[in-house]
Amino acid sequence: MTSAETYYPNEPTTPKVVTAAIPGPESERQIKELGTVFDSRCAYFVADYDKSTGNYIVDVDNNVYLDLYAQIASIALGYNNPKLIDLLSTNEMKNALVNRPASGNFPAKELAPTLEQVLKVAPKGQTHVWSGLSGSDANELAIKAAFMYYAQKKRGGETVPFTTEEMESVMDNQGPGAPSFAVLSFKKAFHGRLFASGSCTCSKPIHKLDLPAFDWPHAEYPAYKYPLDTAENAQLNKIEDDRCLAIVEDLIKTWKNPIAAVLIEPIQSEGGDNHASAYFLQGLRDITLKHDVVYIIDEVQTGLGATGSLWCHEYANIQPPVDLVTFSKKCQSAGYWFHDPLMVPNKPYRQFNTWCGDTARMLIFGTIGEEILNNGLVDQTARVGNYMFEKLLVLQEKYPELFANLRGQNRGTFIAWDLPSNELREKLLKTLKLNGCNVGGCAEKSVRLRPSLTFDEKHVDIFIAALTKSVTQI
């Protein structure tokens, strides 16, 4: 039996759309009502989560969609997973929800075993974890950790005390206590919507308009020729990697302020599902070591199995391991992994807040990780992704203009392609919903697939049938 059949014996066998338009009339009514107290303008439809099961999401009009978007890549095991529901009845979860521990000062007795469980799915080479509240928060916390680590090293080590000048100047937001360090990120990146993370984000203007930002550099992310496996494209892509690596090194050497960290997504998700090669990711490691810069991998969207490995950057086998890896989304929690004990700040209360993450969410993360390992869901995602990619290659051959730059081969179900225009992409996504599949987009004209790890071949066949029908209707 597949994981979907094991978890969800009563999962729908096919999508079912009963309204002529989406959102349907009841969704329209509830979106309007919600809009009186909440900004509901981004809502596609109103979901009925009680009725949603496995890989199917149901809306309040009783439309049943095969879900390949999964709450913006955030559902690892499908809707109403029985193992997660069982977790709700445990004493550990009761304490975490009702008493919400302030984990820095009053950690629950459950926290240590929970973190031990979570660390079973840590990226290779990472041995410690610090938890947060969201993907943006995870990146903010990692940037803080990088700055403090970088400053300690520049100061001469963790035992060197802060100077009086540092202690006084930081209270006025001035140097040397508040140094002008920078983070180098990449054009088209998305790292969050807060202030440090927002300054690293460079995907769409709407994500950061009107927000004060740090004056930090954005390097160029490689833009590859597809398919990757032709000799001509391989040569061109190697040239592109080297060009972008040279830009990174030049910025580190010439930027007006010291660059303390490089922050990168192994696949730029919001920015268009742009993939970085193993050569490029290792090249960044070489550069960061050469210039004593912290290397942060943002695995908020790519992490926990979706790319056919537990963590996307593991395909690059980066040596030595990167300094920090951030996580959220499918983990149902957030934070960062690290391995150097010196990444822990030299004084308590420097990396701190009331809850230091959320014990309840870490319990959920631990259970999700255990289910992934026990049920071979990473291998399943790799297998199903290969199956789906082959089906999409057939469609690309038939409709090349609608499946440009098909990418994600050997990256599990983390698959995307481009349409000729934003208008045509939006029309396809709308048509797919009417044909029973909830699918997302990214950048200006890309379609991205983000199903759960319990998605299997029968779901692929349903999706391909709906996609084939949809491309003939747009």
UniProtKB/TrEMBL annotation:
GO biological process, one term: gamma-aminobutyric acid catabolic process
Record-listed E.C. numbers: 2.6.1.19
Pfam family, one: Aminotran_3
UniProt catalytic activity: 4-aminobutanoate + 2-oxoglutarate = succinate semialdehyde + L-glutamate
Cofactors required: pyridoxal 5'-phosphate
InterPro entries in alphabetical order: 4NH2But_aminotransferase_euk (IPR004631), Aminotrans_3 (IPR005814), Aminotrans_3_PPA_site (IPR049704), PyrdxlP-dep_Trfase (IPR015424), PyrdxlP-dep_Trfase_major (IPR015421), PyrdxlP-dep_Trfase_small (IPR015422)
Enzyme class: transferase
One Gene Ontology cellular component annotation held by this UniProt entry: mitochondrion
Keyword vocabulary terms for this entry: Aminotransferase, Pyridoxal phosphate, Transferase
Record SUPFAM superfamilies: PLP-dependent transferases
GO molecular function, one term: pyridoxal phosphate binding
Entry similarity comment: Belongs to the class-III pyridoxal-phosphate-dependent aminotransferase family.
Protein's UniProt name: 4-aminobutyrate aminotransferase
Organism of provenance: Maudiozyma exigua (Yeast)
